[in-house]
Design a protein that fits this description.
28% helix; 19 strands; single chain; NADH Oxidase; binds flavin mononucleotide; alpha+beta
C-alpha cells in the first residue's frame, strides 16, 4: 500500500503551493518577524560548483576600466570577469576575529553568501566561481530567448546579458534556522542592487525581474528546486566600460564599531537620496520602501525618528523619544553598535499591500527590494566617507513602534551609520580603482 507523503508544516517556506499570501503571513509571524536564534558556530553550506564541467579562468586581476564587451571575444571575457568580480567576487582580504577571510563587494547576512550568480550570454550558460574567479561552462546553448520568455514582463528589446541570481535554500539555515529564508531574500536583493549599480554605470540599461514562471528559469539552468532556486533575473544590454571607483571597492561593514561622535547631516542626505532612487524592477511597488532615520548624533538633525520624504529630500520628525540603541534587544551586539552609531536608517515596507496582486511571492519581492536599498545605503555611505553596517537583528516590534505615522509599515532591514572606529578593521584590497583613490 502506498502511503501519502507527509504534509508540509503549515509555516513551511517557501510554501509548496500559492495561497494568496496566507502562507507568507504564517511564515512571517512564526519565523520572519522574530529575532533569529543565531548559532555563530554553525557555518554555511559549501558554495555551489558543478563537478566535471569545463572551467574557464577569468583574467585576474580584472582590468579596470574593462574594454566594452562588444569588442571581440577577449574583451567580452574581460568585461564579464570585471562585472562578476565586482558583483560577487573576492575583492579584498579581511583580518577578522575569526582569522583571515575573503572580503566581497556585497554584504551577506552572517557572511553565509547563499547567493550564486549565473550568466546567460550568446556564448552559453556559465556559473561564476567567486573564490577561483572562473566560470563553469554549463552549456554552449544560448538560453537568453527561453529565459526572457519565462519573465512576466520581458524587456522590449531582447537582452544581450542575462544574469540569474539564485539562493541555495539550506545555505544559512544551520546558523539562522527558518529565519534564513528571509535573509536569503534580503541577500538576493543586495546582489540585485549591486548588479543594477554596476550595469547602470556601464550604460547597459538593466532591469531586475522578480516575476517569472517560478521554476522555469531554474529548470533551464538545471537546478534541483529543492536545493537552489532562481530568485532574481537581471536583463541588460551589452555592458560598456566597467570601472569601479574607490568607494565601490571600499564598501564593507564597520566591523570594528563606530566612534561615538557626531556626523554632519550633509553626509547623511546623499545616502538617503541614493537609497530612495526608483529601482528598475519589473513591477511597480504598491507602496514604496519608505526610509526612516533614527538619529542620535547627527549635526543639524534633532535626535529621534524622522521620515525621509524623497520628493523634498527633507526629514520629517515622527517621534522624539527613540535612539538607535533602543531598536535592538538589550544586551545583544546590536545594542552596543546602536549606542555607538550616529544614526540608524530603517528600510520599511508594507507586506499587506502586495499580497492581493502578487500572492505569497510578494514576501520575497518586498525583502528583495529592501536588500537593493540596503546595498545602495552601503555604497552611498562609503562614498560619503561614513562607516555602515546592515542589521537584521533589530527588535522589529520596538522598531515598528516608532513608525507611528504609518502603522501599516514594518521594518525590513536597518543600517547603522557613523564614523568607523579608528582606521577600521585591517583589510588588503586586491583591485585598484579607476582614478585617484
Ligand atoms: C541582510 C543582511 C543582514 C545583516 N545583519 C547583520 C546583523 O544583524 N549583525 C551584524 O553584525 N551584521 C549583519 N550583516 C552584515 C554581515 O555580517 C556582513 O555583511 C558580512 O559579515 C560580510 O562582511 P562585509 O559586509 O564587511 O563584507 C548583515 C548583512 C546583510 C546583507
Amino acid at each position: 500500500m502506498r502511503t501519502a507523503p507527509p504534509a508540509p508544516p503549515p509555516d513551511a517556506y517557501p510554501p509548496p503551493a500559492e495561497t494568496g499570501g496566507a502562507a507568507a503571513r504564517r511564515y512571517h509571524a512564526r519565523h520572519g518577524s522574530v529575532l533569529p536564534a543565531i548559532d555563530p558556530a554553525a557555518g554555511s553550506t559549501a558554495p555551489k560548483h558543478h563537478p566535471g564541467v569545463p572551467v574557464l579562468p577569468l583574467p585576474f586581476p580584472p582590468v579596470f576600466p574593462s574594454p566594452p564587451a562588444d569588442r571581440g571575444p577577449a574583451a567580452f571575457l574581460e568585461s564579464l570577469g570585471a562585472l562578476l568580480a565586482l558583483l560577487n567576487g573576492v575583492t579584498r582580504v579581511d583580518w577578522t576575529d575569526a582569522g583571515v577571510g575573503a572580503g566581497r563587494p556585497v554584504p551577506s547576512g552572517g557572511g553565509t553568501y547563499p547567493g550564486e550568480v549565473y550568466a546567460a550570454t550568446a556564448s552559453g550558460l556559465c556559473h561564476y566561481l567567486p573564490s577561483a574567479h572562473a566560470l563553469e561552462l554549463l552549456s554552449h546553448a544560448d538560453l537568453r530567448a527561453g529565459l526572457t520568455r519565462s519573465l512576466d514582463r520581458p524587456p522590449l528589446e531582447q537582452p544581450e546579458t542575462v544574469l540569474l541570481i539564485t539562493s541555495r535554500l539550506d545555505a544559512n539555515l544551520a546558523r539562522y534556522g527558518p529565519f534564513g529564508h528571509r535573509l536569503q531574500a534580503l541577500d538576493t536583493g543586495v546582489l540585485t542592487g549591486q548588479a543594477l549599480t554596476l550595469l547602470e554605470s556601464a550604460g547597459a540599461a538593466p532591469m531586475a525581474h522578480a516575476r517569472f514562471a517560478d521554476d522555469e528559469p531554474g529548470r533551464l539552468l538545471g537546478l534541483d528546486p529543492g536545493a537552489e532556486r532562481v530568485h532574481a533575473v537581471v536583463t541588460a544590454r551589452t555592458p560598456g566600460m566597467i570601472a569601479p571607483d574607490a568607494p565601490l571597492l571600499r564598501r564593507r561593514s564597520a566591523r570594528s564599531g563606530f566612534e561615538p561622535v557626531a556626523v554632519p547631516s550633509a553626509a547623511l542626505l546623499p545616502v538617503l537620496e541614493e537609497a530612495a532612487r526608483p529601482i528598475p524592477l519589473d513591477h511597480p511597488a504598491p507602496a514604496d520602501c519608505d526610509l526612516y532615520v533614527v538619529a542620535h548624533r547627527v549635526t543639524g538633525l534633532e535626535a529621534g525618528c524622522h521620515r525621509y520624504d524623497p520628493r523634498t529630500g527633507r526629514l520629517v520628525p515622527v517621534a522624539g523619544d527613540v535612539t538607535p540603541r533602543s531598536l535592538f534587544p538589550p544586551g545583544g551586539p546590536g545594542e552596543l553598535a546602536g549606542f555607538e552609531a550616529a544614526c540608524a536608517v530603517l528600510v520599511t515596507g508594507d507586506y499587506e499591500s502586495g499580497y492581493p496582486e502578487h500572492g505569497d511571492r510578494w514576501y520575497r519581492m518586498l525583502n528583495l527590494r529592501a536588500g537593493v536599498v540596503g546595498q545602495r545605503i552601503g555604497l552611498a555611505a562609503a562614498r560619503a566617507g561614513l562607516g555602515a553596517g546592515l542589521r537584521c537583528d533589530v527588535d522589529t516590534a520596538a522598531a515598528d513602534a516608532v513608525l507611528r505615522a504609518h502603522p501599516d509599515r514594518t521594518t525590513l532591514l536597518a543600517a547603522l551609520l557613523g564614523q568607523e572606529r579608528g582606521s577600521g578593521a585591517p583589510a588588503c584590497h586586491l583591485f585598484r580603482p579607476k582614478g585617484p583613490s
